[in-house]
Amino acid sequence: MVAEQPADSNSNQENMDVLSSTRTVIKTALEKLGYPEEVYSLLKEPLRMMTVRIPVRMDDGNVKVFTGYRAQHNDAVGPTKGGIRFHPKVTENEIKALAIWMSLKAGIVDLPYGGAKGGIVCDPREMSFRELEGLSRGYVRAVSQIVGPTKDIPAPDVFTNSQIMAWMMDEYSRIDEFNSPGFITGKPIVLGGSHGRETATAKGVTIVLKEAANKKGLNVKDARVIVQGFGNAGSYLSKFLHDSGAKVVGISDAYGALYDPKGLDIDYLLDRRDSFGTVTKLFNNTITNKELLEQECDILVPAAVENQITKENANNIKASIVVEAANGPTTMEATKILTDRGILLVPDVLASAGGVTVSYFEWVQNNQGYYWSEQEIDQKLNEIMIKSFNTIYNTAKTRRVDMRLSAYMVGVRKMAEASRFRGWV
Ligand code: NAD
Q1: Residue 1 above 50 pLDDT?
Q2: Burial of 48 (0-12, 13-18, 19+ CB in 10 A)
Q3: Within a domain: 364
Q4: I want to staple 280 with a disulfide (CB 3.0 to 4.6 A). Which of 140, 193, 256, 408 is the partner?
């Protein structure tokens, strides 16, 4: 018997909105930079979008056929790079938008890559270890012709981890008849993974947050911070800020939020959270996520899901700095409201670029066969994030645009130039 795993049509509509707002900002950025319309025509869509069907023999003996995608946005600068997510709501439009965002991030932190993204419509929380291995290997076989260490390098994303990367690397190495650690990043350290990869996103956010605080004349040691989301990004970020002396006054997960103006005990919360980033269920005195965003603080970091700051609540945000650790937490209308109110908004494509930066370090180490210490990784990440933040901050000031548009201008420029030099447009 063969069962189908359908794609979710409602989330396809939501993701069409994400895709069209991404395109709108890219169009404005290219116009500001003086590029002709044909450059926008090239960059508004991925160059390649592959849809695959992956049959997996499930534990009950039946075969289930899963749908997977791989989008490669633009490879003018170099091979494409981007994670693979396993989620029941994965859609083609979401994967396209995320591939474009990866191109922007690579441009912002000046990596020799274009952007890509992959996804499989599935619910890994309901699958056994053996079924997940079959699905991971099946995906690699299905996309093997368009990926590879010099073509397109995958990585982990939502609900995928270092074990899944290890299976994928092994499958690719079998097909290639060659040990290919540089095919994928986010691997376990023993298979060529990099030190510092797990905490890279949170470290990157911490670095740009400190730069933003400097610009506002705020010392992080005296700052009150709210972090929405307590998963990979939010929990490590809370820990790094807490260790830097900041007062983390609020955190949240999908079930609620904790707020204490005197500061929360982050080490205790980290100790008690589960692997899905849930901790608030243990407390009675919770508030809602909606309420948390409007509490008193100096710095607000949305690190959970998209569309959290909208035109409905943007006027009630008390923070003077908003740092987007999550992808797409602020709508276009809310971006305008926050900017008009003088709030410094550090956009997602800059703030969360630490992950792809350390993924790049992993690929470089695999290619050269020589490995760096965590201190070396931290130092290189620090330099790149500080330089990128200041480029975008200064561009925003000189071009009189908001930080999001400035980031898109910086992110798209190298790709547009490379496409022109190659004679594509
Ligand atoms: P995660 O799954 O580890 O954690 C997500 C957290 O958000 C959990 O605490 C969860 O309970 C909470 N959450 C879920 N739904 C929520 C809701 N509706 N309201 C409030 N909280 C909710 O995810 P993560 O890896 O920490 O990623 C968080 C965000 O950061 C995502 O937007 C992701 O795309 C972005 N991001 C993460 C990385 C990374 O390396 N982890 C890199 C770049 C961007």
Answers
A1: no
A2: middle
A3: no
A4: 256
Mean of the pLDDT values across residues 114-142? 97
Instruction: Give the pLDDT score at 12.
Output: 59
Name residue, tokens 């003077």. 320
E-assigned strands of 175-318?
Answer: 224-228, 247-253, 256-259, 299-302
Name residues whose C-beta falls within 8 Å of residue 380's C-beta, 6 or more positions apart in sequence: 361, 372
Question: What total of structural domains would you count in the chain?
Answer: 2
Whether residue 6 is predicted with pLDDT greater than 90 in this model: the reply is: no
Tokens of 198: 């797990």
Residues with CB under 6 A from ligand 1: 201, 228-234, 252-254, 277-278, 289, 303-305, 325-327, 352, 355
What is the 304 CA–ligand 1 centroid distance (Å)?
A: 4
Q: What is the best residue among 89, 232, 291, 362 to mutate for testing ligand 1's pocket, by most ligand atoms within 8 Å of CB?
A: 232
> Are the CB atoms for 344 and 322 separated by under 8 Å?
yes
Cβ–Cβ contacts within 10 Å for residue 420, how many? 16
4 pLDDT band, cuts 50/70/90, is very low
In a domain, 336, yes or no: yes
Global confidence as pTM: 0.93
Is residue 388 in a domain? no
CATH number of the domain that 204 lies in? Answer: 3.40.50.720
Q: Does 146 share its domain with 260? A: no
79 lies in the same domain as 142: yes
Ligand 1 centroid–CA 175 distance in Å is: 34
**Mean pLDDT, residues 226-237 taken together:** 95
Would residue 330 be called left, alpha or beta, if left means φ above 0 and alpha means ψ between -120 and 50 degrees? beta
Instruction: Name which residue sits closest to atom 23 of ligand 1, judged by CA.
Output: 231
Please give the DSSP secondary-structure letter assigned to residue 235. Answer: H
Q: Are residues 210 and 168 in the same domain?
A: no
Nearest to 338 by CA among 302, 303, 311, 308: 311
> Range of 171's domain?
2-181
- For 61-84, how does the pLDDT look when each residue is reduced to its tens digit (9 = 90+)? 999 999 999 999 999 999 999 999
With bands split at pLDDT 50, 70 and 90, how would you rate the model's confidence at 16? low
Outline where 261-371 has alpha helix (H).
266-272, 289-293, 332-340, 348-351, 354-368
User: Is the pLDDT reported for residue 2 higher than 70?
Assistant: no
